[in-house]
Amino acid sequence: MDVPFWLWLAVLGLIVGMLAVDLFAHRRAHVIGVREAAAWSVVWVLIGVGFGAWVWVAYGAELGQQYYAGYLIEKSLAVDNVFVWAIVFTFFAVPREYQHRVLFFGVLGALVLRGAFIAGGAALIENFEWVLYVFAAFLLWTGYRMLRQRDEHIDPSRSRTLRLFRRFVPMTDAYHGQRFLVRRGGVLLATPLLAVLVLVEVTDVVFAVDSIPAIFAVTDEPFLVFTANAFAILGLRAMYFLLADLIHRFVYLKTGLALVLVWVGVKMLLKIDVYYVPTTVSLAVITSILAVSVWASLRATRGQGRRAVEPPAAPPFRVATADELAEVEPLWRRRGRRDTPERDTPEPAGTP
Questions:
Q1: Range of the domain at 118
Q2: With 224 labelled, which of 66, 197, 280, 313 sits at a CA distance of 20 to 30 A?
Q3: Where in the cell is it found (predicted)?
Q4: Ramachandran area for residue 60 (φ above 0: left; ψ -120 to 50: alpha; else beta)
């Protein structure tokens, strides 16, 4: 696949532009409702699907199908990520009106980190073909582990990331609006919102370790791997607000995701020395597994409505009071006259 440098720049410009639009649309902290989240989800899906249609027309059906297979894998694995975020936000009692800001910067960091992972993975595959065996074995093991742990959930109270953050970074125990940093008593402090952002980023790194090898199983084109990842991730914020209160209904989703990982692991093993599974077949298998797992989940939980994750009895963080907000100093101090040493002023003439 011959991708000119200007096309990379155009795609990056499109991504930056979409992020800017999203940030402008949500510049004011507010609770994002289901209708707004659904509208934005449709927008992001249409953009991702539309880009795949352009790849299909410009580069042919095979590469177009590879993009869609990768996009579908990343989008489906991202749903599990969304459910983890819901547990994290609930445990740390993050006010809903501040959650979008955390997710915006979380997605921004995820794009950068995944770009680095994709570049590293592509370089490894190009120079050391045997690494495909490692990726395939890792996918098979991850799928097996996910099947065994399908009923288990993350426990934020045992997070090593949070313990390390609180050990090395001075922080408050209260949310100060949408601020990640505050200055109080002349000391720069992190807020719990920054700690949650770090936890979200670490969580995405863990998920990227699974998803990046998975997408390399359906395409070895770095451009398709990156764009499928990027367009799938861009819609995660809207997807979170749409699905966060429906975790209890997707009871078989983890089983479906585990089977997808096992399938792409087998496909990668066959691809190395035995047989190349056509992309059309691979795309059909992935779509069927996900469709059946979602259908079975919704059927098993029919009649159940939206229900938020149960919060802990004593959340570790709280919202700052009006007095605490009033004590916050300017984040970045400016050097003014008070910072300059006083000079001796000459006495007026005639003064004794």
A1: 5-331
A2: 197
A3: Membrane
A4: left
